Amino acid sequence: MSPDPPVDPPAAGEESAPTDAPAAGEPGTATGGGTAAGRRRDLSAALLIGVLTLLLGFAFTVQVRNSDDEQVLAGAREEDLVRIVDEVSSRGVRLRDQIADQRSALRQLTSSDGESASALEEARTREASLAVLNGTAPARGPGLRLTIRDPDDELRVTDLLDVIQELRGAGAETIQFDGVRVGLSTAVTGAPGALMIDGRPIPAPYEVIVLGSPQDIETALNIPGGVVQAVGGRGGSVDVVQQPDLVVDALRPLPDARYAAPDTDD
Amino acid sequence: MIPILGLVAGVLLGLLLDPTVPLWLQPYLPIAVVAALDAVFGGFRARLDGIFDAKVFTISFVSNVVVAALIVFLGDQLGVGAQLSTAVVVVLGIRIFGNAAAIRRHVFRA
Questions:
Q1: Which residue from A44, A118, A236, B21 could staple onto A21, CB 3.0 to 4.6 Å apart?
Q2: Is domain A140-248 in CATH 3.30.1490.190, yes or no?
Q3: How close does chain B come to A39, measured CA to CA in Å?
Q4: How far is A48 from chain B (nearest CA, A)?
Q5: What are phi and psi of A58, to 5 degrees?
Q6: What value of ipTM does the predicted structure carry?
Q7: Chain A residues whose beta carbon lies within 8 Å of the beta carbon of residue B53
């Protein structure tokens, strides 16, 4: 390995020209063709150098191109291959661990998502039915329309309370009394002829909309000693009309619980 | 001028043809390239020193490549191919550095 720059003067190169360049080999005239041989020697040397550098450039490019590929593995040595396999397999183990972690995280997330979704759904349904019971949301459904006439202003608070009780007992789910929604804390006050529900005066005749099973409620109203008879006893009358689709749209304000807080630990 | 033209032409050829290196050549090609690079640097330095000789350059080029490949081949046979090729690359790298330093002295006078 001694490609060091030649120590010889250029003259040495001239002497070795014939062996160096095959083209210049045949004449071998050292006397007359001095300059011609020199020129030919120059040419062949340039050609050789060109070919060598071309080879170098070619090999360089090919190698650079090649070392980009995965194909390098095919020519790799055994020990290198062992190392590479080692690295790859440990990387595979790490990646597999990661996959397992991500999978379990995903499972947790989806299951908790499903749980919270169903809990939310349940809460919505509860909220809706509570709102209907409470009178804070409008409701619609089958029911009855009662018209209670009181021409003599004889109906008292207790009579209206009886009506409400009777309706509730018969399974009424929500009641609207002359445009006032009847709820948990509804109060009937006033004197005969000037009755009020929840402080709002209700003019006779009283228009009552009830949502619930129409047959049950109508039966309950008409039993002997029931609402119809009691109102009739005071000179009034009750018209009962069953309707398949009624709308209760009067609302009650949501009461603020100032003292009672929900007990959550049950 | 000719070496530069040759290099450029070789690079272009390599890019255009894009051949695959045969398996048996794969361990030796990089070493051969480094050895040839060393010869080219040596030739360039000799040119700057004014003592360039085409014959010496050619022989050094070829023998450099052959010897480097031979060492790696021997190393492979002995089971120390990886280490020996590292050694060859280190030695050639040192020589390239030395030649580059000489060239730098010529070009920048420093």
A1: A44
A2: no
A3: 13
A4: 7
A5: -60, -50
A6: 0.82
A7: 6, 8, 10, 12-13
